[in-house]
Amino acid sequence: MKRIDPIPTNLSPNALLRSLGITEPRDIDVEAIAYYVGLRVKRRCLKCCEAMITGLGNKGIISVNLGGMPQRERFSIAHELGHWAHHRGETVACRSTDIGKFSQTNTVERAADQYAADLLMPWPMFKTECRKHRTLNLNALKEVAGEFKTSLTATLIRMIDSDIYPASMVICHGTTGRKWHRSAPKMNNRWFPREELDAESFAFQLLHSQNQEEQRFPRKIGADAWFDKAWASRYEITEQSFRIPGEGVVTILNLDPNMVG
Ligand SMILES: [Zn+2]
Hints:
Bound molecules: zinc ion
CATH topology of the largest domain: Beta-Lactamase
Number of helices: 8
C-alpha cells in the first residue's frame, strides 16, 4: 500500500524549497507550496484587508484580494504562509499596510514578511542573481525582480540586505517627507539621510511634478544633497530616482566604497 505523506511539519522556507526540489527562481510556485503545506488559495473580494488566513488543524485557506498585481499577490500569499508557519491556530487578517513593510513595531507582521522574503527570494539563488550586476541601479533591480517575480520594493530591500552592494542605500519619500530608508548592513550609521528632499535632487523634481519621467541612468551629485552634515560636501555620490506606485519616489544612492566604513 502506498504511504500517503503527511503534511510536512518543518515549514521553514529552506526546508520547504529543499523538499520540493526547487533550485531555480522560476520554480518557486507559491500556490503549489501552499497546497503542499495544507493550504488552498482563494481569490475573492475582501473588504477589510488584503489577505487573510483561516485554519483548522492541519488544513486552511489563504484568501487574497481580487485584482492585485501578480507580484504583490505572490508576496501576500507567501506572507500568509509565514503566519501559517509562525502563528498557527490564529485567524490573521492583514491590511495592505501590514504586508511587505517589514514593520519595526509589529513583530508578528515583520516575521511574516521575513518569511515571505526568504521563501520567494532564497539567499543562495538571490545572491547568484545579484552577482550578475556589478552595481545596484534601476536596471539591475528590474532584472532581478523579473527573475523572481517579486515587486520592486521587496526586491530592492532584499538587494540592500544581501551585503553584495556595501556602498548602497535606498530612501523612499512621499509628499509628507521621508517614509523609510535602508542601508547596506555594514554601512557606518553616520550616513543617515536627511528628512526632507533637497531641491537640487532629481527625486525632488520627480515628487513634485507629474510628468517627470524616471531617471534612466544614475547621476552624480554632491553628498550634501542627501546628508545634512558639514563634512558631506566633500563627497560625491550617485543618485537614481524613480516612482513606485503606492510607495512614492524611491532613490538608490551609491557611495564610494571607501567612504562607507
Ligand atoms: Zn500579516
